[in-house]
Amino acid sequence: MDEKDLKTWLEGRSKHDCVVIAYRAAMRSIPIYLRAEYWLSTPTITKTTLLLVHSVFKSGVQPRAKGISATILAFPQPPSTPPRPRGSASGRARLAAIQCGNTAAADTNELARSAALRTVAASASAATRAISAANDIWAATAYDAQMIESGNDPLFAPLWHDISSPILDGWRVAVGLFQEDEFDWSFWINWYDAELEGRPQNIDMLTEVALIPDDDWAKGADHVNAIIAGIVLKYAIKATPNAEEIVVNPETGLLRLQTVSVLPSDHLADVLDMLRDAQAIFDDDIGGNDPYGTIRAERDMIAKAISEYAARPRMLFNSCMRVVRRMEFKMQTGDCPKDALVGDYQTQISGAANKLLSYDTEVKAAVTSESVTRLDSATPEQRGQLVLAATEIARLAEGPLKDELPSDALIAADPTASIEDRRLAIYQTTSRVLRICWVSTKKGAGVTSAHLERHPVKYGALLTLIAILAAV
Question: Does this model's pTM top 0.85?
Answer without folding.
Answer: no
